[in-house]
């Protein structure tokens, strides 16, 4: 639900865009945020009241909507289930994002590098055929040719680890 700040932003953003249409949105939002912080509590109260009115209006509309549902309890159960699934999805997403930021990158294999090179420039229709060809041709490469891809995989991993270590030290 919208809070008072959101109503303030909506109002000020419209006015600011009319006055300065070329100014980037990011700059406008910074300026509006500063304006909000400089408002007195009595000035902010107007927007907080707008928020409360909107919340009450939404609550009445939601209750009216629920009354139109043939099986209100079943609808609420399904809604609760969907919210639970969404929360679970967000929890997994956040955990994966955290791992990406905090764990060192996995090393690509020489085979990964070889397939990447073989698929470079392939259209969507060609990918499957090229992938099959790459898998077959990998088996026929000599040890010296595979060693080149192993070296490239190591160089890529070393570079990614250096970036990772710099990122960790910066925190």
If you had to describe this structure to a student in words, what would you say it looks like?
The structure is a single chain. The model has no long low-confidence stretch (mean pLDDT 89). Helix 1 packs across helix 3. The chain starts with a helix and ends with a helix. It is 82% helix and 0% strand. The protein is mostly helical. It has two domains: 99 residues, High mobility group box domain (DNA Binding (I), subunit A), CATH 1.10.30; 61 residues, DNA Binding (I), subunit A. It is elongated, with a radius of gyration of 28 Å.
Q: Rounded to an integer, what's the Rg over CA atoms?
A: 28 Å
The CATH fourth-level homologous superfamily of the largest domain? High mobility group box domain
Structural class of the helices, strands and pairings? mainly alpha
CATH architecture of the largest domain: Orthogonal Bundle
What is the CATH C level class of the largest domain, in words?
A: Mainly Alpha
Biggest beta-sheet profile: none
The span between the termini is 34 Å
Looking at the structure, what is the overall shape?
elongated
- Residue windows where pLDDT falls under 50 for at least 5 positions: none
Instruction: Indicate the proportion of strand residues.
Output: under 5%
Overall mean pLDDT stands at 89
Find the CATH topology of the largest domain: DNA Binding (I), subunit A
Estimate the helix proportion, in percent: over 70%
State the order of secondary-structure elements, H for helix, E for strand: HHHHHHH
Number of domains: 2
